[in-house]
């Protein structure tokens, strides 16, 4: 008799345990919610992000804000869990909002070699964008002539800075024209644009020339000179004044 009671008792305990296990599984499936895929809410404003999560039975919580070049101010810059993760409904998604780009002064790079300018800009948190090249008589190859944005202006850290450099491609040789009887100042500017240095001297003789006119040049017209060479100009200091005309 006692043996039968123990058997019945054991069966009853096993049945209760089985029922409890089934109820636990049911609770985890139905009370815990079904599984959903976490959406990508990055780039959405807070209202759109919350609505997207609510539609899937997920909750949201703002945990941080930081600067971001990729995402505009007041939009979601990061989320946890990441998009594509499988979670149960009711799961909380942690949200980080963007404060927009962080503004910095564009450093001064004009006159520096392109390689040096790259280092300066990257250390300041900028990215070198396009590099355009133009030939100039003065200066040296790969010399930075300008940047866009301009030096000293405010730009978002991580944004592009475009650079204009001297490619030094112009032929350094110059055939001297005949400069005699031309006004001194326009001649000087013309020679300097060609990359030549000008040395002048004056003579107190008329030479049948107007005042401040070139009466002699060395090297003479037709000679080939190179950028950086010096041209001597002899200027008349006597004679009548005349309004100077550009060459």
How would you concisely characterize the structure shown here?
The chain has 247 residues and is an alpha/beta fold. It has helices at residues 2-31, 46-55, 114-123, 184-193, and strands at 35-37, 59-66, 76-80, 86-88, 92-98, 103-105, 127-134, 143-148, 154-156, 160-166, 173-175, 197-203, 214-218, 224-226, 230-236.
Q: If you compute it from the alpha carbons, what radius of gyration comes out, rounded to the nearest whole angstrom? A: 40 Å
| Overall number of domains | 4
Low-confidence regions? 25-31, 242-247
Structural shape: rod-shaped
CATH fold-level label of the largest domain: Trypsin Inhibitor V, Chain A
**In DSSP terms, counting alpha (H) and pi (I) runs of 4 or more, how many helices?**
4
> How do the strands of the widest beta sheet line up side by side?
2-5-3
CATH architecture classification name of the largest domain: 2-Layer Sandwich
Helix and strand content put the structural class at alpha/beta
Strand content: 25-35%
Sheet with most strands: 3 strands, mixed
Arithmetic mean pLDDT: 82
Roughly what percent helix? 10-25%
Straight-line distance between termini: 132 Å
CATH class of the largest domain: Alpha Beta
Number of strands: 15
- Helices and strands, in order, run as HEHEEEEEHEEEEEHEEEE
